[in-house]
Design brief:
Length: 246
Amino acid sequence: MKRTRTVLVTGGAGGIGQAVAAAFAAAGDTVVIADRDAERVTQTAQVLGVHGRVLDITDEPSINRELDALQAQFGPIEVLVNNAGLLTVHGKLLELPGSDLDTILRTNVVGTFLMTQHVARRMVAADVAGTIVNISSIGGRQPTPGMGGYESSKAAVDALTRWAAIELAEHGIRVNAVAPGPVRTEMMAAGMPEGSPQRRAWEDRIPLHKFAAVDDVAAAAVFLAGSGAAHITGTSLPVDGGQLLT
């Protein structure tokens, strides 16, 4: 019989994070979603039948406060999914303001680092051989004009994944990443509707000729956090329909 684990999913109030939370809940885990938007956290938690907390991944006092509260209520976190991140700020190299790049890196890289550090500290202190899964992007390995700030941040997330994996291995903690290509989220559908020229141009880059579903990404996260991936650490698993092959 599968043992129930405590799973924390950041950015869990929508999109990929919501699908990840639903997948872990369906697997029988105790799931907590964390997000900055209190209203969305409450609504999503009610819909999924999971627990919700308001947390800013760039704010260390917020992180410590919420992690302490979670551990007091549910015991040590055994699975962390670092999904929260910033996708909407873009610009070409010669045009992107430095302040925008700082915002991207602060959220996607420093936020992921802080959550990894503080959760891993608690895992080590509680002698928990836990699992951390970062949501990265194939953009960290395949450039797209105008998206370099975001893609640089995800390349850093992949490096952070390897860094954490090699240092936390002695504690039995595995760290991996899921690297999606384009995903059919509500935000993506609004920006690139089905049948639009922009959507077709993206799909033409993908050998399977379709975007990933959020459930495809969630399934990869559940796999990497599970016993079937017990000897996998430090990898970034593409979920991209073969886009990196092109």
